[in-house]
Amino acid sequence: MDAAAPLLVAASDFFRGLSPAACRDVTERARERRFARRAVLLRESESEPALFLLVAGRVKLGKLGSNGQEVILQLLGAGDVFGGVAALAGGPSPATVQAVEAGRALVWDRPVLRELVARYPEIAVNGVRIAAARMQEIQERFRELSTERVAQRIARTLLRLARQAGRRVEGGVLLDLPLPRRDLAEMTGTTLYTVSRTLSEWSERGLLETRRGRLLLRAPHALVAIAEDLGG
User: Fold this and answer.
1) Can you give the residue ranges of every domain in the chain?
2) What is the pLDDT of residues 162-181, one digit of tens each?
3) Percent of the chain with pLDDT over 70
4) Is 148-227 CATH 3.30.70.100?
5) What CATH number should be reported for the domain whose range is 5-145?
6) Cα–Cα distance between 76 and 38 in angstroms, integer?
7) Global model pTM greater than 0.70
8) First and final CA of the chain: distance in angstroms?
9) pLDDT surpasses 70 at 65
10) What is the 3-state secondary structure (H, E, C) of the chain?
11) Which of these, 102, 199, 101, 194, lies nearest to 158 by C-alpha position?
12) Which end of the chain offers a freer environment for a tag, N or C, measured as fewer CB atoms within 10 Å?
């Protein structure tokens, strides 16, 4: 186990409020899982959830819509957690979790997690708070999908990714993660054709460009105007 793992546990919202000794105990109860790019860590309605704390790499959380098309709800990176609330509540995983990049995670299976909750009730309180925040975020995403124009949704998604994985470089903000256009289409509830056409148009206008397979947002302020429907 990585020597820094207890510090990662202590910094996680899921284990907020635990003492250093408790964080070491929690860490010792975890197992480590390494995963390859595109590996499925949990499958919607099939997998029994466990609590995952990402140490390295990125994953996407997706759900199947009523039309059978996957909608990506979140992208998560190092330090983020997933699966814990469902593991505590019982039942199968509510979403499919697939690796966008190779990485590794600390994993607490359902029986172990429930034992830890009995020992440290703060975990359950944190779980409820995280569940409420996630539900609010998911509701906001579905509101966007049902009420906003496609260009707004694409711009808002790029800005959200910039907050999560953006890095300021010369010329703008680099989205430092692989982002296939198909994934962007799934995140915004539209088609691959529409995403490609929109990004090409914005590239011609100088709003963004592709660098080594990554998107560079050259004019984030213009994307804000589009996202807020201010005539961009």
Assistant:
1) 5-145, 148-227
2) 988 888 998 899 988 778 88
3) 95
4) no
5) 2.60.120.10
6) 14
7) yes
8) 49
9) no
10) CCCCHHHHHHHCHHHCCCCHHHHHHHHHCCEEEEECCCCEEECCCCCCCEEEEEEECCEEEEEECCCCCEEEEEEECCCCEECHHHHHHCCCCCCEEEECCCEEEEEEEHHHHHHHHHHCCHHHHHHHHHHHHHHHHHHHHHHHHHHCCHHHHHHHHHHHHHHHHEEEECCEEEECCCCCHHHHHHHHCCCHHHHHHHHHHHHHCCCEEEECCEEEECCHHHHHHHHCCCCC
11) 199
12) N
Q: What is the CA radius of gyration of the chain?
A: 19
Q: For the chain, what is the mean pLDDT?
A: 87
Task: Assess contact for 66 and 25: CB atoms under 8 A.
Answer: no
